[in-house]
Amino acid sequence: MKEQLKMIFFTIILGLVSSGILVGMDAYTRDKINVNEELAFKKSVLQAFEIEYEASEIIDVFGDQIKRIEKNGYDFYESNSGAVGFEFEGSGLWGPIAGFLTLEEDLITIQDIQIMEQSETPGLGGIIAEADYLAKYKGKVFDPDIVVVKANDEENANNEVDAITGATGTSRAFETLLNAEYDIKKEALVN
């Protein structure tokens, strides 16, 4: 009985010490994590607006080139060129997808898309975060919606983007996410 009490006491002490260390490390690194997340966000925004910057000047360039606008409960970002961008977030096929979408001044033409978080299958659905795939969206228009189509030899219409081969579910989920977020954010922006 005495041995069992020693084991229970040791386990409790070990658990308290371990959790104390984890809580302490979290508190110690929290500010640095927040700064790094802010820098990653600003970097994604600058990339989505196609604004060149040096890594050491991200904060200054962001402050000089980008203006945050709050409208109807949503944050929008406007560049000096007049392009407008916003964050989007929603469900992919296997997990959340979060990113930043930039529109040209006409508010229907995609200037760029940056993916900041995704949990799709690496090598298949994960392709949605690759620059080569996202480049296919540049210049496409929400007229009336973005449509993901099966890849073929024909030229796509101005609102069509080829689906990812082998990841049709992810492609469709991304299409639904972009169109839904665009509709919500455009409504908030123009009203």
Architecture overview:
Helix content is 43%, strand content 23%. The chain is α+β, with helices and mostly antiparallel strands. It has one domain (57-190). The protein is built from 4 helices and 7 strands. A 5-stranded antiparallel β-sheet has the order 1-2-3-4-5, with helices on both faces.
In short:
The protein has helices spanning 2-48, 58-65, 131-134, 168-190, and strands at 66-71, 74-79, 84-91, 96-103, 110-118, 147-149, 160-162. With 191 residues, the protein is of the alpha+beta class. The chain is extended.
Instruction: Give the helix tally.
Output: 4
Uncertain runs: none
Largest sheet: 5 strands, antiparallel
Number of strands: 7
Strand content: 15-25%
Strand order of the largest sheet: 1-2-3-4-5
Which word captures the global form?
Answer: extended
List keywords for this structure.
single chain; 191 residues; alpha+beta; 5-stranded antiparallel beta sheet; two-stranded parallel ribbon; 4 helices; extended; transport; transmembrane helix; FMN binding; sodium; FMN-bd
